[in-house]
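A note from the maintainers: we've had questions about how concatenated examples are separated. There is no special marker in the raw files; a new sequence line simply starts the next protein. For clarity in this README we add a label.
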Amino acid sequence: MTDIAQGAAAPKPEEKEADHHPYTKPKDAATLILIDRSGAVPKVLVGKRHDKVVFMPGKFVFPGGRVDKSDHRVPVAAPMPSELEANLLKGSPKTSASRAKSLAIAAIREACEETGLCLGRKVEGKLPSLEGPWAPFTEAGLLPDPSGLFLIARAITPPGRIKRFDTRFFTADASAIAHRVDGVVHADAELVELVWVELGSKPLADLHAMTKNVLGELERRLAAGPLRHDAEVPFFHFYGGRMHKDVLGDAS
């Protein structure tokens, strides 16, 4: 879950881990924020975590998690836009083209695994047989489709934390959902409930601080009109003992 990656905001006193914790290299992760713009006010999809999980019990989060080693090898229905790839290649630590694909694919995989909502597209000809978390795509005759993803922000968990993530926050329109898997969200699952909530509504006020920062960026992008790949992408990271917000590719 990338809700653990959303630790890029300064920790509250009660959450702060030992300052002397050895340096941990951030692991690549991806989060997907699905938007429903069919109504007057855009809605985003959040999932409620089980009350008995260790991290953020009972909190609303967005689907996401770590990149898997095999993500870059997964065949896709359409390549991601070159502008999205260019955004993913910006910043430091540097990102390779194969890693950029892995990040986009990880966002789609995690969303399907955790919510049962799969972003894909039917393609002509015989499809490769995908297994594991990709089995729902094979069963539905789909390949994952990253062509509708937009990068909203990048955030790196500050040093001194036991777990650190270099998270890319993607968004996609709900119309990109091509398949729904029943039974993924239930009372004993990691996510016990899915809710489409209007931007600015109460469930979103209880999100992690960094997630709210990213949502603020998304709201500003939506207010400016249709999402564009050439919009500035914020990069939240720590140096000099505090969190900085730069434009990805400028000061990074």
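[label: protein 2]
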Amino acid sequence: MVKRYSYFILLLLVKQAAFCQSIDKIINAQEVERIERTLASDEMRGRKIFTPDIDRAADFIAAEFKKAGIQPVKDNSYLQEFAMVRTAPVSASGTMNGKTLADKDIAVISSQSALSVNQASGYKQVRIQAKDTLPVTIGRLQRTDGDYLLMVDTAHRPLFERIKRGGRSQFASKGNIVMVLSNQEAGEYAIEFKQTVATMPLKNVVGILPGKSKKEEYVIFSGHYDHLGVGSANTAGDSIYNGANDDAAGVTAVIMLANYFAKQKNNERTLIFAAFTAEESGGFGSSYFSQQFNPDQVMAMFNIEMIGTESKWGTNSAFITGYEKTDMGKILEKNLKGTGFTFYPDPYPSQQLFYRSDNATLARLGVPAHTISTSKMDSEKYYHTQEDEIETLDMKNMAAIIKAIAISSTSIVAGKDTPTRVTSESLKR
């Protein structure tokens, strides 16, 4: 019995050693540096949206996805293209139930420069109660491309006024949402609205690794590839915001994870690898991406942001934003047992990091979506500066973090573990 027990222990150790050698061949400091050095190079000129520079970055990421052997998101392209429109209100007027509507109580989410609608226009009426979440409802309606008259409870006045002010970017869509701030039901109504509209093209880079037994269940690995571009020169004469840590580091991880899982060929759930655009401008890339999926089918999201420097605990460690909102962190800890790597809860709760990265949109829809980071947000001296360059990063530690993400996600990717959902109550905390 003792000999048999010793044999199984030896076999386990041999398998573990073989696994470590396999993952080290795919995820290592040399490969990290190769990808990172390209994305954060001066040739990319800071990857600012609406420039040829970010297009070069998108092409590089798409080529890496193709080389990894994952499938394009649509037809033969890894580019998830969409348009933003920047709108500014010009005028609004109308009547409802025989009474004149005030301009301040009318708002429109539309790609059109002018709208004239009434009860015969075929708009479906939807009421937003005080208890409802306005952004979630708007997102759900936008995904349908339908036309809606949205009656918004006056409890939502602050957010309604922010939407009303315009001067904001939103997705170009076929549908229109006319919003009226009122606690009444709409009977007869007539509303006219005019705004200026400027259209701006954007693109995410997305690849897919289809699952086996659970194809309709998705696990997402993501990071954003845009940054701040070129600005005024600093004292050293450098005007390029290279964004090596923010967030070429996260995209490097996504590319390497795509390569790793494609070689493993054992994912039961479908894996989606996404490099988002326009995070620095308001998270528009991830917002559009989230509208392409039924959130109930997304089992987990690993968003990766700023993992190029040591965490406050040193090497072989990182933190998870919103750790307490689901049990996903506990699952990752279980899978990492014995590796020497530790995931900690977010040590900077006052920074509200859970709501400041690309995980937030899906998290608000209930998805266990968290950001993994090492950034010391209370003392990150290169954050949003021209000094955020590859020379400030630790390639060996980055490789260790990426390997930890791969290992910790194993049971979720295999469909054996499913994290609990984000609840509306937890979002309030």
